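Pipeline run #58 for the internal structure catalog. This entry was flagged by the ingest filter as a single-chain record with no existing model, so it goes straight to prediction. Upstream metadata was stripped on purpose; only the residue string is passed forward. Reviewer on rotation: M.T. Logging verbosity set to normal.
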Amino acid sequence: MRIRKLATEFGVDPRLILGWLHELGYPRYHDPEQQLGPEVLTRLRIHQRELPRSARARLPPVPTLQPRPAVPPDPELGAAMKGVVPLASSTPARRAREGRPPVARAPSPQSPPNNHRGGAQSQPAPAGGAKPAPSELGLALEAEKAACKKLNMELDAERALRQAQDTALAAERTEAVSLREKLAGLAADRERLREERDALVAEAALRSNPNAASATPDPGGAGSSLRQVLERRGLRSEDEFTLAFRALLDQRRLPELLAHLSVAEPDALLSLLERRLVLLAEGDEEPPGVALLRVTSERSEGEPPSAVRDSLRRFSTACLVHNLRSVVIVGGSPAYHRSLREGLDSRIRLRLVPGNSRGHIPEIPSADLVIVWAGTELDHRVSQRFPDAMIVPHRGISRMLGAAVERIEGRSTGSPRADRTDG
């Protein structure tokens, strides 16, 4: 904004604005047509609001230039310039009468602006080649140059930082693309390994059951296994087998599925179901690592947690009191075996023998007490290896251990090592 326009806005004389500028420390303003910067304009508005109304219209003294002192004539210069007619004596009218063209005068140099308060004239430059003192305008320009240089340096640093960030981002994107490609390759390898694993499992199953292998030479024949049928349907892995059966069960297609299934070895399937599936009532202790099926209390294979803990504690106490430190239990599911290992006293050396052992039957060293758990799955060949064992026909842990405690404590006839009657 120009000084004159600001004076019109304030309703004052432009010379009053110039006086305020000199009072605020801006002597470089001397013309009403000069432009005002934002900072100067803000300070002027604040200064105008702070002045009383009586002082807003009073004009400050306008600085005036002091007349230059008269220079005495030099005799030597006058002698040298004798006969020279000054151009000022040759007026334009006289030159026109004499037919001479007018003389173009060079513009006279203007005096420098008054940069001092009170109208004092600026001092001439000192002689002898000494540099003049820098003016306020020069100092301001130098400060602005230094600020611009600093800003340029900061901008260059920011550009370098931004370029480094862009480079790092591009590297991360490249790495992400590479990781995606590796992930896709690993997924393909996983699928391939899964197929190889399924093939090896199928081969091991055929080797363990040569009769089934000889009976199913043709995958499309009548003796095809369930795996082969599912593979012919297009399923490739055990995960897909599981999802397919789950989808069929959700649609209640189990009766249709069971109508087309037959079991080559019912005993093996029954053993698998006894190891992996437990029938429990609400509130019974849940053994880990097995599938649970909720049934009524009459069909439950489990025991309440408190009853199991009490029976384990009573059995441990009875064995320790009667100095039965080595105990062998034949029969029982893996879930029952886990409960016995975790619940019995650690001072009792417990050995558990699965009742469905096929092929090799482990040799059992001499023990203080041998219990044949007849209420669970029990192979006749296994039970024959322990003719002097205590026979307990109960199925649950608490009932089996309770009967064993009664026989150990002599509440039933016969020796605890050779009694084969029901308790």
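catalog note: The radius of gyration is 57 Å.
catalog note: Residues 303-408 form one domain.
status: ready for reviewer M.T.
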